[in-house]
Request: fold
Amino acid sequence: MRTLVLLFVGVMGCGAEPTQALRPGASRIVAVGAHGLIAEWSAGGWQIVPSGTSADLSAVVAHAGGFVAVGNGGAIVSSTEPGVWAAQESGTSIDLNDIVDTGTKLVAVGGDWSTGATTVVREDGEHWRSVLSPQGQMFHAIATLDQLIIAAAYLRSDLQLPKLFASRLEQSSALSGWAEQPGPDFFDSVRTPDGVAVAGGGTFARSTDGITWTSSSLPIFATAIARDGPRFVVAGGDGAATSLDGVAWETIDGSGFTGAAAGGGEMVLVARDGTVRRSGDGVEWSDETIPSASDVRAVAVAQ
Reply:
C-alpha cells in the first residue's frame, strides 16, 4: 500500500506516421527530464534546448507567462519564449516534485527524508517564497481547485499510513497552513469544469469541493493525467487509456509513459525513452521521438 498525505493549501505506440506540424491550438510543447533535459516542439520537430540546470527535472507547467519546470535540489527553471530558459532561486535545497498554476500564483511542492515537506510559491514573474509545511511528510504531487491547493504526500517514517492535509487561499492571496483531512492518493491532477480530477495507481478520483471524492477503477497503473474538452487521458509505465466520463476507459497502444498533457485540441503523452504520442481526438494517435533523449519525466502544452 502506498502512503498518502493529501494537503489542501489555501491560498500527465505504434504504427502511425510522425506529425510534422503543430495542430491548431497547441502553440508550444515542452518535455523535461533527467540531467536538466528540456525538449521543445516546433514546426520543425523536437529539439533539445539549454535549460540552465543540470538537476533532474520532475515536473513542468504551462501558465500565462510561459513555462516553469521544477526538480531535484530545489531546482526551478523558467521560460517566457521558445528555446530560452533561465534558473530561478527557489529558496530551498529540497527536491521539488510537482507544480501547479492556480491562476494567480505558481505553487511547487516536494520533500525529502531528512527535512520533510516543502512548499514554495511565486506570485510575480521571478521571486519564490517558502510556506511552512508538515515536517513529518514528503509531498509528491499537487492539485488546485478554486481556493484550495491539494497535495499528496508520504509519511517520512512509515510509507504505509496515508494522510491528507488542506489549506485555503486567504484574502491576501497568501497560502494558509496545512490541515489534515481524508482524501485519495494521487500522482497527477487536472482541473475539470466543476472541480478537479486526480489519478493515482489504479484509481481515478474527482471532486467538486476537494473534500468529497468519487472514485473509479483504471485499467492501468496511472502516474499522469490530462484532459482536453470532455476527454480524459491517463498514462503510466504499463500503458495509457482515455475516457469521456471517467468510468469507461479505452486503452491506448504503448507503454513506459511518464507524462501526459493536453490543450487546444491536442493530447500529448511522453515515455521515458523519448517516445511521444500525440492525438487531436484521443482516438487516432501519431508517434514521434525526442532525439537523444532518455529519462523523460513530464510534459506540458501551451495553447
Summary: Confidence is low (pLDDT under 50) at residues 1-24.
